[in-house]
Specification:
Helix content is 7%, strand content 56%. By secondary structure, it is mainly β. It has a single domain (7-235), classed as YmcC-like fold. The longest helix has 17 residues, at 7-23.
């Protein structure tokens, strides 16, 4: 969204926000419309997505399955119409592997507002089996499947902050809460400080997941139900 949007657009956005809050008491309060001057420059300390060209997480599920997630910054943009203004999102390819086999490949779309908040504008998912696409479940795009932008990371996350990473009726809803900030963790043999821990509640599955983020690195550990993956390196 753009603060220079027309007065009519601003009024409509306010009306939608008020209506959403009235219909859903758990919805976050309305916020000022964000401005996107350089949306593909994503350097929020806790989610510096465009600082690196590739990041990897590795771990093992409770059943012994070896898991790996590889996120790659692609040299292209995905345009979205946000409040009548063109916003070009950064494109991150996220490949998930189980025991070395690619089981999911997703294109994720992120944009950072001028205040440092990182927004999530959708994902295009391909679920695979034996090297073949079996479905695209979980796919959604802002402006097509929902009129609500997701928040991937607040500008300055503080304990108690609540926001929605995804809010797509009929597809998925992920409600996040900042549980702690100021933690310490060991990453790549060194101690990092001011680590943030965030709880994710995912519907309709009802799953609860925790993630930890370190300044300058981004996510360093994920604790989904039945497993754990940890930071295995990033490169610029």
């Amino acid at each position: 969204m753009d603060l220079k949007a027309t007065a009519i657009t601003t009024i409509l956005l306010g009306a939608f926000a008020v209506a959403a809050s009235a219909a859903d008491p758990g919805a976050p309060p309305p916020a000022a419309a964000p401005v996107f001057s350089a949306p593909r420059t994503i350097d929020n300390p806790y989610l510096p997505l465009t600082t690196f060209t590739r990041c990897e997480l590795r771990g093992t599920a409770d059943d012994g399955t070896r898991e790996r997630s590889v996120k790659t910054l692609l040299q292209k943009a995905k345009p979205f119409d946000v409040a009548g203004r063109r916003v070009e999102a950064a494109v991150i390819r996220d490949n998930a592997y189980e025991d070395g086999e690619l089981v999911e490949t997703t294109l994720d779309y992120y944009a950072q507002a001028d205040d440092g908040t990182v927004y999530y504008l959708g994902e295009q998912v391909k679920n695979l089996k034996n090297g073949k696409v079996v479905d695209t479940n979980g796919t959604w795009l802002f402006g097509r499947d929902t009129d609500r932008t997701g928040v991937a990371m607040p500008a300055d996350p503080q304990p108690g902050d609540r926001y929605r990473f995804e809010d797509v009726p009929g597809v998925t809803m992920e409600s996040n809460r900042v549980e702690e900030r100021g933690l310490r963790a060991k990453v790549d043999g060194r101690i990092v400080e001011d680590v943030v821990r965030i709880q994710e509640f995912i519907q309709p599955e009802g799953a609860v997941e925790h993630k930890t983020y370190a300044p300058g690195l981004g996510v360093i550990a994920e604790y989904p139900p039945g497993g754990r993956v940890e930071y295995a390196g990033c490169r610029r």
